[in-house]
Write a structure and sequence with these properties.
By secondary structure, this protein is an alpha/beta fold. Helix content is 44%, strand content 20%. It has two domains: 255 residues, Rossmann fold (3-Layer(aba) Sandwich), CATH 3.40.50.2000; 209 residues, Glycogen Phosphorylase B (Rossmann fold), CATH 3.40.50.2000. The strands form three sheets. It has a ten-stranded mixed β-sheet, sandwiched between helices. Strands 15-14-13-16-17-18 form a six-stranded parallel β-sheet, sandwiched between helices. Strand 16, helix 13 and strand 17 form a beta-alpha-beta unit. Helix 1 crosses helix 16, helix 2 crosses helix 3 and helix 10 crosses helix 14. The structure holds 6-O-phosphono-alpha-D-glucopyranose. 6-O-phosphono-alpha-D-glucopyranose binds next to strand 1.
Amino acid sequence: MTTASSGQPADDLQADLVIVANRLPVDRVTEPDGAQSWRTSPGGLVTALEPVLRASGGAWIGWAGGTDHIEPFERDGVHLVPVQLDDQEIEEFYEGFSNATLWPLYHDVVAPPQFHREWWDSYVRVNRRFAERAAQVATEGSTVWVQDYQLQLVPQMLRELRPDLRIGFYLHIPFPPTELFVQLPWRRQILEGLLGADLIGFQTPGGAANFVRLVRQRVGHRTKSSSIYLPDGRVVRARSFPISIDAAGFEELARTPGVEERAKEIREALGSPEHVFLGIDRLDYTKGIYARLRAFGELLRDGDLTVEDAVFVQVATPSRERVEEYRRLRDEIDMLVGRINGVYGEIGNPAISYLHSSYPREEMAALYRAADVMVVTPYRDGMNLVAKEYVACRVEEDGALVLSEFAGAAHELRQAWLVNPHDMNGLKSVLLAASRATARDQTRRMRAMRRQVMEHDVKHWADTFLGQLSAVPVEETAASRG
Ligand code: G6P
């Protein structure tokens, strides 16, 4: 297959705003008649950036998944520019260095990171390919915004090719503390790679502070609060921009009669229990799925909850299934769910309703509306958008959010029932407290959280970042020329 697009090939295309991300904002779908087409990926990033990209005739550079060569194409006024990976690069750059080195290292070493020199070489090679593509597509003096941990070398590589550009970088996952980051054999290269940007965004002030401290200590640049002064006169800013969701879109969806009806159906299908607990995650070891299900199992064992009055619905979206740690996790969760259901479940009353699958937005909204207690317990998470989606969907201002202290979202959703997922007894008592909270307490908390999420949506996030990037004085950018 050379092209699966409905638009025209546009190999010589030029754009004033370029997004560079590991993945394109579309997924390939095969129609019943076998034809290939594209569907917009779920996720806030696309929703937030699509209007600005469309208005500026912008471009999005990314991997389409798989190994096919696909020509650039246009969709809804946005140019999509596929970057091709081969099988070895998928193994070494994507599954290897991105998801078995950087991912665990940046998430507090929840799983041991693996360091392999061939993976690093592949990471460098693929980052260069993305940078070269961006250098071809961006017009003179335009803006390029690079996304996430898979592409941390792109800012510097791109600046070398195109010093006229304004370059932004945003890290969607946590930036780790110095003590962990320095394990990385290529720590200096990653820091230098990021410093190619004019503005570097993090989810939390702590992540930005970790980065600035490392640059001062390890690269030796002078820093002052969020500013880093480079020897060539350039100033790089590292600041926090907490990401969010299309809050109004979720709220509107949650209010539709179809979703409301479906939420009722779900509760009935679960046997109309008093308490519906819900978890929705990518099946990832950082998410604390095992801990929360174990806590729920112990509450059943202790008799604090019974299967007649409580059920746990856990949706686990398949993810990175060829990476060893993810396979192991899947087996562990399968076993735990089987054990808990085997011991405590009854005919018509399972303890845990476990769904290893992904669902459309409508079904997610219905699940959010059906759930009394949303359980979000990552050991470490950049933000966690599920927590914000739940809040946006609780249009009746009820329901309880149990939220890990170690999710970026905990900085904003202070009225959640905050919990340390490593503390099993703490987790158990918070699950009980949240499920037994009075309606008044729930409303007080939910109202405050809803205000926060509705006012700080993903559009606000993108506008703030791009606004600050466009305010970078041009002389500073130009100072690095020649
Ligand atoms: C996280 C990362 C994203 C990534 C997503 C899905 O949210 O921050 O960069 O795209 O997970 O993971 P995948 O490996 O399927 O792209």
